[in-house]
TrEMBL record:
Designated name of the protein: Cystine transporter subunit
Organism lineage string: Bacteria, Pseudomonadati, Pseudomonadota, Gammaproteobacteria, Enterobacterales
Signal as UniProt keyword: yes
Similarity comment text for this entry: Belongs to the bacterial solute-binding protein 3 family.
InterPro entries documented for this protein: Solute-binding_3/MltF_N
Length: 77
């Protein structure tokens, strides 16, 4: 997707990986023009930014180190 929309719009794009903690600040300061990431749409952000229709929906997940069934059984006691 990131490579298809510039072609569709007839513009050139330079894709640059950016750290999450500076992404919106970079957009605010006009160092970048577009953010392509899973940014949560909030009422506060909607006041400041124009969002596309979401192209993915991702819930919150928890992640732990892979465990064996035996360890899992011990933890469930």
């Amino acid at each position: 997707m990131p490579n298809s929309w510039p072609k569709h719009l007839g513009v050139e794009a330079s894709l640059k990986p950016t750290k999450w903690d500076g992404m919106l600040a970079s957009l605010d300061s006009k160092r970048i023009d577009v953010v392509i990431n899973q940014v949560t749409i909030s009422d506060e952000r909607k006041k400041k930014y124009d969002f596309s229709t979401p192209y993915t929906i991702s819930g919150i997940q928890a992640l732990v180190k892979k465990v064996t069934k035996a360890l899992l059984k011990r933890l469930m006691i």
